[in-house]
Amino acid sequence: MGAREGRSFLERLDRTPRTVWYGNQKITGKVSEHPAFSGIAKTISELYDIQSEPSNADLMTYPSPTTEERVGLSFLQPKTPADVSKRTGMMKRWADHSGGMLGRTPDYLNSSIMAMAGASAFFGTEGRDYATNIRGYYEYVRENDLLLTHTLINPQVNRSVGPSKQADPFTAARVLEKNSEGVVVRGARMLATLPIADEIMVFPSTVIRSGQDDMPYAIAFALPVSAKGLKFICRESFASDSQYDHPLASRFDEQDAVVVFEDVLVPWDRVFILEDPERANKVSEATDAIVFMAQQATVREIAKAEFVAGLATIVAETIGADQFPHVQEKVTEILLIAESMKAFLRSSEANAAVNRWGMMTPDYVPINSARNLWPRAAPTLAVVLKQIGASGLMAIPPEGILESEARADVDRYYQGKGVGAEERIKTFKLAWDVAGSSFGGRQELYERFFFGDPVRMASAYYAWYNKEPYKERVRDFLRRERPE
Ligand SMILES: Cc1cc2nc3c(=O)[nH]c(=O)nc-3n(C[C@H](O)[C@H](O)[C@H](O)COP(=O)(O)OP(=O)(O)OC[C@H]3O[C@@H](n4cnc5c(N)ncnc54)[C@H](O)[C@@H]3O)c2cc1C
Question: Fewer CB within 10 Å: N-end or C-end of the chain?
Answer without folding.
Answer: C
